Give the backbone structure.
Amino acid sequence: MTKISAPTTYQLFGDFLAINWDDGHESMLALKMLRQACPCAHCRGEPDLLGRIMMPAQRDEHTDASFQLRSMSPVGHYGIQFTWGDSHYTGIYTFEHLRRLCDCDSCRHEKESA
Ligand SMILES: [Zn+2]
Ligand SMILES: [Zn+2]
């Protein structure tokens, strides 16, 4: 298992969350994409025993407010909890999840070659 990177800093830049990782990597994550990747059970549906999601359970209509980040707070040493403009806050984004969402050239390349 590879070591999971942790953010050293993270900061809001308009519609993006900029994350600096402890391995020197930088990510710019679009808030819209972040919200759509919300890992909470409500947004994701419950995974089956193998961890597969059989049916995405995105039942809520997203509004503009859904993609505004109201606040973020660290969760232990493993993740960040976001509170969105529509008061949705149940998603805890682990560092691993956040890193996987990075869509920069080198991460994309890594995913393709994996
Ligand atoms: Zn959610
Ligand atoms: Zn990246």
Observations:
- The beta strands are 7-13, 16-21, 26-30, 69-75, 79-84, 92-94.
- The pocket of zinc ion (ligand 1) is lined by residues 38, 40, 42-43, 88, 90-91 (CB under 6 Å).
